[in-house]
């Protein structure tokens, strides 16, 4: 090959290499721009979500403060274990829930609840004692009945069932689902079933499963199990597994869902 041909071949190779480098550089730049756009979008989404949650927290706090005293309400829900009283309107609750309608009309016949009349601003006041539900769940549901807004706990930072249901302004979807089902709030039941997947993480699914599901409706538990099975590789690595197993061991009635999960992942 002549020197001229070699020179031309070298020039062609250099030109091709330069084109290739340009393409690579352009691709890297496009990828970097796409990543920057995605990062900005995610940052904006997180900011909007935080602002939305903050707004819901303010709404929840406003209603929590309003319901801390009797006026203008006529029914007090007393959570003696927590030292918390929640006030609401019996007529309002009756208009929203068949459960409350039957409760107030029946004279509080259920053994876990009782009623009494007291002279408070010349208005009849009913007392409902609650011993098996958290005040946080009732606060969240009462706020939803008033505003249509519900803030679920999606962070999954709690390591026990009790802590999971005491986060400020947010309550777990499973807690809301079970209480909404009990209170005959079918729309809220459907909302929790529809949204729960958005709030589950490999860490908090254990907390949601560690409940006494005996005799309870199964739709929520089935969704929790489906999530845990589909994400088992991440779920089994969760640092929440050990403390939840300890909690279940101390409260065997909460272990049924764990046994069901083990059967599903093992394939029995």
Automatic annotation (TrEMBL):
This is BQ2448_6647 protein. InterPro entries: BTB/POZ_dom (IPR000210), SKP1/BTB/POZ_sf (IPR011333). Residues 73-154 form the BTB domain. Pfam families: BTB.
């Amino acid at each position: 090959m002549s020197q001229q041909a070699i020179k031309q071949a070298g020039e062609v190779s250099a030109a091709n290499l330069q084109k290739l480098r340009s393409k690579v550089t352009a691709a890297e730049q496009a990828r970097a721009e796409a990543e920057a756009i995605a990062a900005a979008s995610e940052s904006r989404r997180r900011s909007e979500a935080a602002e939305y949650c903050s707004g819901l927290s303010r709404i929840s706090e406003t209603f929590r403060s309003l319901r801390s005293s009797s006026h203008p309400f006529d029914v007090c829900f007393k959570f003696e274990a927590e030292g918390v009283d929640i006030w609401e309107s019996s007529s309002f609750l009756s208009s929203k829930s068949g459960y409350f309608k039957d409760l107030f009309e029946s004279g509080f016949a259920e053994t876990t609840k009782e009623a009494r009349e007291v002279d408070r601003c010349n208005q009849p006041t009913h007392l409902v004692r609650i011993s098996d539900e958290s005040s946080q769940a009732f606060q969240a549901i009462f706020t939803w009945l008033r505003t249509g807004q519900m803030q679920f706990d999606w962070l999954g930072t709690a390591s026990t069932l009790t802590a999971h249901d005491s986060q400020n302004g947010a309550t777990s979807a499973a807690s809301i689902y079970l209480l909404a089902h009990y209170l005959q709030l079918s729309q809220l039941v459907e909302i929790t079933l529809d949204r729960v997947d958005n709030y589950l993480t490999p860490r908090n699914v254990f907390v949601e499963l560690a409940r006494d599901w005996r005799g309870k409706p199964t739709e929520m538990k089935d969704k929790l199990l489906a999530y845990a099975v589909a994400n088992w590789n991440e779920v089994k690595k969760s640092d929440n597994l050990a403390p939840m197993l300890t909690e279940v061991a101390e409260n065997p009635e909460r272990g049924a869902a764990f046994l069901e999960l083990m059967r599903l992942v093992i394939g029995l």
